[in-house]
Design goal:
Chain lengths: ~425, ~325
């Protein structure tokens, strides 16, 4: 698998045929003959469209990041197969940000200074995307973020060059809350990973819960990357909630779920996990996740009702031995895909026209129609409420979630522009 | 472990290379600066060159206590991070001009070093390493929790110093080469100052402490005070490196306070050659360039860097520059 990624990542000139080489050689020869001015024009017109893609290839989210890179490459391949931008091909430059904001900033500077990228897309953590965004916005480079964060929408970090393709914690938690609170009860407990993402999810739940009159009976925070949850879970059990919201991510989520299952908490309360991830569920096993309800931007079974999902799955399956893509992988595909749609529409790689094109764009890459809200460039999209299946209900190893509800794309589920500090 | 003064090692050697090395040793500040002046043109991109300057300075400051005084600290990330955060916070929250902000960063790190030093300096060896590690982790969690000031896990954003606002000069840090020379000016001053400190009687005291603490005490050195002072000076240099890093990246990531950053300083010093003047910069150069090149080829870069580190510890314990000096003066 990883060899395949590497060959993908190192492939510099997708689809260079002898004919195109001959053609550009001919163009080049003419241009040199016609003098330096002509040459510059020819160069600008045939220059590759370079997209920098910093993701944490090493570290705990390595496999997810490689998935994002694979999916983004599919978007680039499709763009090139469609003739590119009047013959200008696109190229994806994948870099390892090591899940560290400082490293990501350096890598982004490298992409801009050395590789002269036109656009940047990527990241798999809130802090990393904020640092990439700080570098790109100062240099007038469009950045499409593909991981969750609330802060990036806020006026303080936002710039006109900033786009956020991923959902944000506020809308995910809100959607899950609106679905679950009327169904399972009003006594709510929170288990919170003590960092921005965890607290952002709590805020989303609480705002959604206001309409349903929820009562918060326990709020327990745990340090990031905890292994042992036994000091925290009994406090929650003692409060006897109807619903437990797991406001954590990745291994924290997996470990807390496994231990909560062991404590028999699933029989006492409904467990919600706003960021319920396909790969994490597959790593954690059916037992720990069974019955957990969460939110997702995507699950591959969406192909039964949405045509673009089917097309995306098929393109991915063709290159990955029949395995369907993951939810975070889909962000990579949609982020780069939407960006290239914008480039095509604008007819150039210059930032300002592309921004204008992206603001007008309605795109359907993999899950139905999406668009970027004008004030904060947040992608307005549907949120899927999913329930983790038990082992006996799974049709195959990939069939891990049921889509039980769809929260249609709407700006109403986002924090308002004024709330985020944007003017008008 | 210990290294003799290169000039002494060179005595009695008539070889030309040795002569060059001796000349460099005599004019070590000029040699370092001359090299660093043309340095950005030798590297693939400027941001990497800036990183090497900053981490070189960080390792240089660290080397004062590690290489010259012979005390291993595992808490120097605290000073690097304090410098970064102090500079970042006064710029972001108080709108301070970049120049005093850099001074604030260095001073804040110096104060941090004064406190941590006072608590840790009476312990020795592994205990000293552990106490400094523990105290620097305290700083990490303190800054992590002060979310309103520091940005917490998301890091501090908005250290947007681009226009330097120097009278008569239109310089912007958005230009990578300008940024390099901007950082270079500070590093140059620091390197010069560092050399002066080493050449002073205080520098001699540090090496005496490394060679034999009891004898130094018998000679009338106030051991505790000298150690503490060296620790504070080291903190000032590392804080300056941190301040420059905040301006370079325009953000302050929480990882700059993490103990990995402390480990980085140890690794760079060992790679380059501890207790040598050029060593830290050679170490920073080797480490960062290797990391940069290898990550482009494989995601398993840590394996290669780790293997290299083991190789140096086993076969070249003097580090790259230390071994070179040895070889040149043989």
């Amino acid at each position: 698998m990883s060899d395949k990624v590497k060959s993908k990542l190192t492939r510099k000139f997708p689809g260079v045929s002898r004919r195109s080489v001959l053609k550009s050689a001919a163009v080049g020869a003419t241009a040199i003959g016609a003098g330096p001015l002509m040459f510059n024009i020819a160069k600008a017109a045939s220059e590759t469209i370079r997209i920098g893609f910093p993701v944490p290839l090493t570290g705990p989210y390595g496999s997810e990041a490689q998935e994002q890179a694979r999916c983004a490459q599919i978007a680039v391949d499709q763009f090139n197969a469609g003739g590119g931008l009047g013959g200008r091909m696109a190229e994806l430059l994948v870099r390892d940000d090591k899940l560290k904001p400082g490293e990501a900033a350096t890598r982004t500077l490298e992409l801009i200074e050395k590789d002269k990228v036109h656009f940047v897309c990527g990241s798999l953590s809130a802090s990393v995307q904020l640092s990439v965004n700080a570098v790109t916005k100062a240099r007038g480079i469009i950045y499409v973020s593909i991981s969750q964060s609330d802060a990036i929408n806020e006026a303080k970090d936002f710039s006109k060059y900033t786009f956020h393709e991923a959902m944000n914690p506020h809308m995910t938690a809100g959607a899950v809350g609106r679905y679950a609170f009327p169904k399972f009860g009003k006594r709510v407990a929170f288990l919170i990973a003590d960092y921005a993402y965890g607290h952002e999810m709590v805020r989303g739940f609480k705002q959604a819960g206001e309409a349903h009159g929820i009562e918060v009976v326990a709020e327990v925070t745990h340090p990031l990357a905890s292994k042992d949850f036994s000091p925290f879970l009994p406090q929650i059990q003692a409060a006897r909630p109807d619903v437990l919201c797991l406001c954590n991510f990745g291994y924290d989520q997996m470990n807390s779920l496994k231990q909560a299952t062991g404590f028999g908490m699933k029989q006492q309360m409904q467990v919600l996990a706003p960021a319920l991830l396909y790969n994490q569920r597959r790593a954690g096993g059916a037992g720990a996740y069974e019955g957990v309800i969460g939110g997702a931007n995507y699950h591959w079974t969406l192909e039964n009702s949405v045509a673009s999902a089917k097309a995306f799955n098929d393109a991915y399956r063709k290159e990955n031995e029949g395995a369907p893509p993951s939810d975070y992988g889909a962000y990579g595909y949609a982020g780069v895909g939407a960006l290239l749609d914008g480039v095509k529409k604008a007819g150039t790689t210059d930032s300002d026209p592309v921004i204008a094109a992206l603001e007008e764009l309605k795109y359907d890459k993999y899950k139905g129609t999406q668009y970027y809200r004008k004030c904060d460039h947040q992608s307005v999209q549907s949120v899927f409420i999913i329930e983790s299946k038990s082992k006996k209900d799974m049709a195959n190893e990939y069939d891990v979630f049921d889509i039980v509800h769809t929260d249609e794309a709407s700006e109403d589920v986002l924090r308002s522009c004024a709330e985020l500090g944007h003017e008008a | 472990m210990t290294l003799a003064n290169p000039q002494e090692e060179l005595k009695g050697s008539g070889r030309r290379l040795a002569g060059v090395v001796a000349l460099m040793a005599r004019h070590r500040v000029l040699a370092v600066l001359g090299f660093l002046l043309v340095f950005p043109f030798l590297l693939p991109y400027e941001a990497l060159a800036v990183n090497i300057l900053i981490y070189g300075l960080f390792a240089l400051g660290f080397n004062l206590v590690f290489g010259y005084m012979g005390v291993l600290s595992f808490g120097h990330a605290a000073f690097f991070g304090l410098g970064s955060y102090a500079t970042g916070i006064v710029i972001v929250h108080y709108g301070m001009h970049w120049f005093p902000a850099i001074l604030v960063g260095a001073v804040a790190a110096g104060l941090g070093a004064a406190v941590i030093g006072a608590l840790a300096i009476r312990t020795r060896g592994i205990y000293f390493a552990m106490v400094t590690l523990a105290l620097s982790q305290c700083v990490y969690y303190l800054v992590y929790q002060l979310e309103d000031l520091s940005g917490g896990e998301n890091g501090l954003r908005g250290v947007d110093v681009y226009d330097l606002g120097l009278p008569g000069l239109e310089l912007t840090l958005l230009d990578p080469l300008t940024k390099y020379y901007f950082v270079f000016v500070f590093v140059a001053l620091a390197v010069w100052l560092f050399s002066r400190i080493l050449a002073s009687p205080f520098g001699a005291v540090l090496e005496a402490l490394r060679e034999n603490e009891d004898r130094a005490r018998a000679c009338g050195t106030n051991v505790a005070l000298s150690k503490w002072l060296a620790f504070v000076i080291s903190g000032l240099f590392c804080g300056l490196a941190g301040s420059l890093n905040a301006i370079h990246l325009t953000i302050v990531p929480i990882e700059s306070l993490h103990y990995h950053t402390s480990g980085l300083a140890v690794m760079m010093s060992l790679l380059g050659g501890m207790g040598t003047f050029f060593g830290p910069f050679v170490g920073a150069l080797t480490f960062l360039v290797l990391e940069d090149v290898i990550t482009l080829v494989t995601v398993h870069w840590q394996l290669f860097v780790g293997a290299l580190f083991v190789f140096f510890i086993l076969f070249l314990p003097r580090g790259i520059w230390g071994s070179f000096l040895r070889w040149a003066s043989r």
